Amino acid sequence: MYLTQGLKRNVQIHGDELATQDGDRARTWRESANRIAQLAGGLRRLGVVDGDRVAVLSLNSDRYFEYFFAVPWAGGVFVPINIRLAPPEITYWLNDSGSKILFVDDNFLEAVKALDGNLETVQDFVYMGDGATPEGMHAYEDLLQEPVPDAERGYEDLAGLFYTGGTTGRSKGVMLSHRNLVSNSYHIHASGSYRPGMRYLHAAPMFHIADGLAVFGVTIIGGSHIFIPGFTPEGCLAALEKHQVTDTLLVPTMMNMLVNHPDVEKHDLSHLISVIYGASPMPESVIRRALDVIPDVKFTHAYGQTECAPLSTLNGPDSHVLDGPNAGLFKSAGRAAVGVDVRIFDEDDNEVAPGVVGEICVRGPNVMLGYWNLPELTEETLRGGWMHSGDGGYMNENGYVYIVDRMKDMIITGGENVYSAEVENALYQHDCVVEAAVIGVPDEKWGEHVHAIVRLYDGEAVDEATLIAHCHTLIAGFKCPRGVTFLDEPLPLSGAGKILKTTLRQPYWENQNKSVS
Amino acid sequence: MYLTQGLKRNVQIHGDELATQDGDRARTWRESANRIAQLAGGLRRLGVVDGDRVAVLSLNSDRYFEYFFAVPWAGGVFVPINIRLAPPEITYWLNDSGSKILFVDDNFLEAVKALDGNLETVQDFVYMGDGATPEGMHAYEDLLQEPVPDAERGYEDLAGLFYTGGTTGRSKGVMLSHRNLVSNSYHIHASGSYRPGMRYLHAAPMFHIADGLAVFGVTIIGGSHIFIPGFTPEGCLAALEKHQVTDTLLVPTMMNMLVNHPDVEKHDLSHLISVIYGASPMPESVIRRALDVIPDVKFTHAYGQTECAPLSTLNGPDSHVLDGPNAGLFKSAGRAAVGVDVRIFDEDDNEVAPGVVGEICVRGPNVMLGYWNLPELTEETLRGGWMHSGDGGYMNENGYVYIVDRMKDMIITGGENVYSAEVENALYQHDCVVEAAVIGVPDEKWGEHVHAIVRLYDGEAVDEATLIAHCHTLIAGFKCPRGVTFLDEPLPLSGAGKILKTTLRQPYWENQNKSVS
Questions:
Q1: What residues of A are in contact with residue B15 (Cβ under 8 Å)?
Q2: Residues in B touching A398 (Cβ below 8 Å)
Q3: DSSP 3-state assignment of B73?
Q4: What pLDDT score was predicted for residue A510?
């Protein structure tokens, strides 16, 4: 069980078939694996030894794919960086992970320059673009020299650090092993959603573990990879048609833009077999529209967490129907994936009866090794051998999971997780703010958006725009409040002294039919 | 990764669906899992503690299936006994494994009585039949009392001992872990041969790891199990039709009898989707006949070893065609299964070039922990991290493996492995025999049959029938020679002093088109 196994099997049995297609650049498995072994050689020459972290900040590309295999081939640990972070957050991820090398494409050269002087461990930069190599960086293609043998780390060895938002206001690195990522691939294979010979479009960002499912799962089963730099409905539609794509993964926001695009029916999407979506609830109207415009496509809802590498439950095509006994079943997050134990626990970690709300807990070979350098949080999250997701939900008599709340106080906006505490921390750093609570409020386009409720110190004054601008200096744009409500009186508190967010949310949600899938 | 995981997932998501069907006796997953937890409770009360071995000698049944899950549920290790063994061999397996308990059905009560006094470790016998419980045995249904919690051993923990013929003349216990058996299931899932909702007929004997693939793989993916006691073409055809079977596994001898049965086309086999075959080469005439009488069925050839739990390579439906570019490809053993590394090594364990014959070697999470109590043989077989199969073969440019010889000097007759050395040992125990060599010779019905070439001590005389009868007192009937050739002169030897079996085989095979798949 090691990540590069599938790569080598593909060279053996699909050597002359398509591995990667990026624009007009196509490579076979033999070519791709050879480049990966050469890139691993380059990493070794830069000093990478077993267990060293190697980060990347880039839009999607075939080189990003090669990075995902060259790093373990060289014995290293990959650290994909969220492309929407603010500079202090990028700095934190790189320093916290102790990354030795940073890969960067043209789109983030300026962002990386801005980090100058703050990076504690990065020694080398690799420029992934095709332009002139910036001073002080290595050109990607120059690193491809003498290939080295595969380090063949595997099983429990650390393969990657995937950072996720932190309730403490700081991101935390989720440690995923080779076994975690390979097992997770097997779990999706057994669902029947993936198949040998599939042609997968990487439209969702590759830094995210949801796309990682495909980077590894499609490789292991022997499919081909198509890349677009990032999602636009036009670019996605064009690639689906041109490259006869059979499979892709979209977050609901992308799906919404795609199926409601005026040109959707002008494109030949006849090769498309299966679309997996995840990361947040899909509004019913979007599903209805999708079933209408691409009726032959099989839809699957995948629910999971970075900590589960990421798959916990799946809701398959049988549930995506508008009539018959299964009508409406798409509102569920689905049932335990093959190989994964899913249970609903009460506060004392006892399993609750069907229909009773509790915390969704997960166990399996896909569950993370733990949080990087956070042993106490790891122990707490994995207590009793179960990954405590922080998501509230219930399970019906037939094993269908319904998510009803996010116990960790998280907002999902446009497919991105935003932890309220992180935004509140930013607000609290403003001198005028005495009390702050951040909630998600309904948003037609993004599902929810971030909203702040703030009380200022007596006699202080600051306006909405200033407070939002203050946040932008500290955290990623998508995490910043879109609006601020100012209260004159103290925020409502629970008996235990916690701010009563349910009370704060109520006026925004009371007329909403919040169908959380 | 533990064997009972799929069982519990099925209770959660398929609780009211069919788990097992044995004759007219049908049970849901909820019922089946409850019985398994109760049977595990019975095993615990009989004193089973973690790691204890529990053996079974029985034809196929739903109770055999329950045994396969109750033993790990109780923390034990299953030891399925070959139903065709002679009493001394059964005794050896039971004593060597140190089995504490033996499950036995009506068909083997007499055989077990004959072991009386020779068993060193068996303390309890469990009678699996529905008749009167023999004295000194526990009734199966009486053991089903208070359920116990699942021991949840998993990963590297020993799950089962599967005995295989030994080149040293003794069987050896292959130690398979939970991870071995679960990984192997994932590997077949990824091939697309298995699918949720499948209805699998256990026609091949359940003691064999080839059927174990289905016991665990079908359970994990959420299918149903149909049992017949053993293979007869009539019984198999009737069950395929009556229970709307979608999947089964047959050895070539069974397939031959099935597709050439006069009534094959009178049965409704329209539900049959996929047939896997393995264990020995399939004659081309049988494949042609199969494609003719059940043309809608997808055929897959699985090649493997007990040591690989058992899957190494697969040759899928695309290769089972009579026309086009893939015609004839069914003569190959196929390509590495998903998750499995397969290479051809020379005598120094270096990989050979495509087309060059060497030893087929296998690596993966499915490869055994080792041989029970045989550390030196384990180390030799698993040297360098690769399982050395003892099978000779080559791989073509596209990764297709062709088996050309059995380096371990093994005969496959009717799907059963017979190690020449074991038969030769039996012959040598006759006082008149000075030299013996056992080879496989062509057989229309069984593929090969066992033939002995013998030289007697000067002045001694014994006839063919007596020598064969002598073997029957020592080894299983299927291992005994069908014929004996007596030589007056010493058997031909190689320079190293080994009997030249190639020379002995030559007259039998020279006019045969030995197409070993």
A1: 397-399
A2: 13, 15
A3: helix
A4: 74
CA distance A476 to chain B (A): 38
- Taking the model in full, what pTM does it have? 0.84
Burial string for A92-125 (b: 16+ CB within 10 Å, else e) reads: bbbebbbbbbbbbbeebbebbeebeeebebbebb
- Per-residue pLDDT at A517 exceeds 50: no
Please tell me the total count of domains within chain A.
3
Tell me the pairing of strands B18-22 and B224-227: parallel
8 Å CB contact between A419 and A463: no
Give me the residue from B195, B338, B398 closest to A220, CB to CB. Answer: B338
Are B22 and B137 within one domain?
yes
Same domain, B101 and B214: yes
Angle at the Cα of B220 (from B219 to B225), degrees rounded to 5? 15
Rg of chain B in Å (alpha carbons): 23
Q: In this predicted model, what pLDDT tens digit does every residue of B12-35 receive, in sequence order?
A: 999 999 999 999 999 999 999 999
Question: Is residue B166 very low, low, confident or very high in pLDDT (cuts 50, 70, 90)?
Answer: very low
**What is the edge-to-edge ordering of all strands in the sheet holding A158-164?**
A138-139, A124-127, A101-104, A53-57, A77-80, A158-164, A172-177, A370-371
Of B12, B183, B338, the CB nearest to A336: B12
Q: What's the full length of chain A, in residues? A: 517
Kindly state whether residues B477 and B395 are assigned to the same domain.
Answer: no
Concatenated DSSP letters for A478-507?
GGS-SEEEEESSPPPB-TTS-B-HHHHHHH
Q: Which two tokens stand for residue A139?
A: 């050109």
Position A345 pLDDT exceeds 80 = yes
Which domain does B57 fall in, by range?
Answer: 5-230
- Which residue reads 């004392």 in tokens? A348
Q: From the CA atom positions of chain A, what is the Rg in Å? A: 23
User: Is it the case that residue A168 has pLDDT exceeding 50?
Assistant: no
Taking residues A211-237, what's their average pLDDT? 96
Out of B357, B382, B406, a domain closes at B406
Residues 6+ apart with CB under 8 A from B485: B451, B452, B453, B454
Of the two residues A504 and A50, the one the predictor is more confident about is: A50
Give pLDDT, residue B167: 39
Q: Which pLDDT tens digit goes with each residue over B96-122?
A: 999 999 999 999 999 999 998 999 999
Query: Does residue A440 contact residue A481 with C-beta atoms inside 8 Å?
Result: no
Summarised one tens digit per residue, pLDDT across range A456-500 is 988 999 999 999 999 999 889 999 999 999 999 888 876 555 677
Size of interface A-B (CB pairs under 8 A): 95
Select from A5, A192, A194 the Cβ nearest to the Cβ of B196.
Answer: A192
Q: Which amino acid is at A154?
A: G
Instruction: Kindly provide the ipTM of the predicted complex, given to two decimals.
Output: 0.83
Which among A199, A230, A261 is the end of a domain?
A: A230
